[in-house]
Amino acid sequence: MTDLTLFHIAPSRSSIVHWMLEELGQPYELRVLDHKRGENREPEYLAINPMGKVPALRHADVIITEAAAICCYLADAYPEAGLGIPLLDRRRGPYLKWLFFGPSCLEPAVTDHMFKREDAPRSALGWGDFDSVMNVLADALRPGPYLLGEQFTAADVVIGSGLRWGMAVKAIPDRPEFVVYVGRLEQRSALKRAIERDLSLANPEG
């Protein structure tokens, strides 16, 4: 029996949290929803996440949604894993910035670029413009090996997942900084385990 249950669709944004859980090293349960059958839109799941989206994490009697928020929560809940930055550590500011840069800047900039949405005024967009997002990320990753230097954190799970996805669908350019960083992340045993399990879930007969 475990206190951690991830409501999951493979592959999807919940794959971010799946990787995070593997990095955490704690026992957890995957509750896999069938997206084709619309299980994420059924009343039972809407009672957990009214948005009808994954991921959602149940930790004992607490429900958390939104991938970056879940990763932040897990890093704080299990500090022994070394995936977060303590509250009074001055590095927590940059750590939180990168955690939330993923869903608030990287993902919307990439999806707008990918789907060729009509341009809106730069001042109206929280992420500014696609090129700025790419340049800011490249500058941050250049020193390496991770966003906060030598320490791998939940912020790398969030940003790394966004870059892996964007590069896989050819929506993010193969800039040297991104290629090196993503290649380094893909050597992590936790990510390898999460990818392998997601592949088996997505192709149960394959």
Write the layout of secondary structure elements.
Layout: E1 4-8, H1 14-24, E2 29-32, H2 43-46, E3 56-59, E4 62-65, H3 67-77, H4 92-114, H5 130-141, H6 154-168, H7 176-185, H8 189-202
Parallel strand pairs: 1-2
Antiparallel strand pairs: 1-3, 3-4
Helix pairs in contact: 1-3, 1-6, 1-8, 3-4, 3-6, 4-6, 6-7
Task: Write a brief structural summary.
It is globular and about 45 Å long.
Structure description:
- This protein is α+β, with helices and mostly antiparallel strands and 206 residues long.
- The chain has two domains: 4-82 and 191-202, Glutaredoxin, CATH 3.40.30; 92-188, Glutathione S-transferase Yfyf (Class Pi), Chain A, domain 2, CATH 1.20.1050.
- It is 49% helix and 8% strand.
- It is built from eight helices and four strands.
- It has helices at 14-24, 43-46, 67-77, 92-114, 130-141, 154-168, 176-185, 189-202; strands at 4-8, 29-32, 56-59, 62-65.
- The chain has a four-stranded mixed beta sheet with strand order 2-1-3-4, with helices on one face.
- Strand 3 (56-59) and strand 4 form a beta hairpin.
- It is globular and about 45 Å long.
- It starts with a strand and ends with a helix.
- The model has no long low-confidence stretch (mean pLDDT 95).
The largest sheet is:
4 strands, mixed
N-to-C order of helices and strands: EHEHEEHHHHHH
Strand content bin: 5-15%
Structural class: alpha+beta
Give the overall form. Answer: globular
**Remind me, CATH topology of the largest domain?**
Glutathione S-transferase Yfyf (Class Pi), Chain A, domain 2
Amino-to-carboxy terminus distance: 29 Å
The percent of residues in helical segments reads 40-55%
